[in-house]
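Researcher: We're teaching a course module on how sequence relates to structure. For the next exercise, students receive a sequence and then see the predicted structure as tokens, so they can try to spot secondary structure elements on their own. Here is the exercise chain.
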Amino acid sequence: MSDLRAHHTGITVDDLDRSVEFYGDVLGFDVLDRFTVSGDAFATAVGVDGATGRFAHLDADGSRVELVEYDPAGEDVPTDEVNHSGAKHLGFAVEDVDAFYESLPDGVETLSEPQTTESGSRICFLRDPESNLVEIIEA
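Model: And here is the predicted structure for the students to work with:
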């Protein structure tokens, strides 16, 4: 067996352009690449007949975030709550969670103001335009 190493964290979105704008403008990530993949091999690999994927890869300080918009789009899966089985979130560190929170543009949905947990971590959660959870932790 070959050695595995992390390559990216992928998120399926309904509107690629809107999501790229959020991750670029709000979180400051740079777009590394944008591309489209289709064809029988891709459709077979992802298990979706006739699938086409529009992709954007973004640099999150050395960690690659992959956003993908599928055609055809799948059914919405309820992932509103972080405690649902199968729920996901992205986690990113900042030096000052409070300053980050204060700098968020109007209209960015947050779950709460920054909180200090029992373990001493200072965190806040927000949602991207597709309602995916993003955790910001002070580190």
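Model: If you want an answer key for the exercise: DSSP finds three helices and eight strands in the chain. The longest strand covers residues 52-60.
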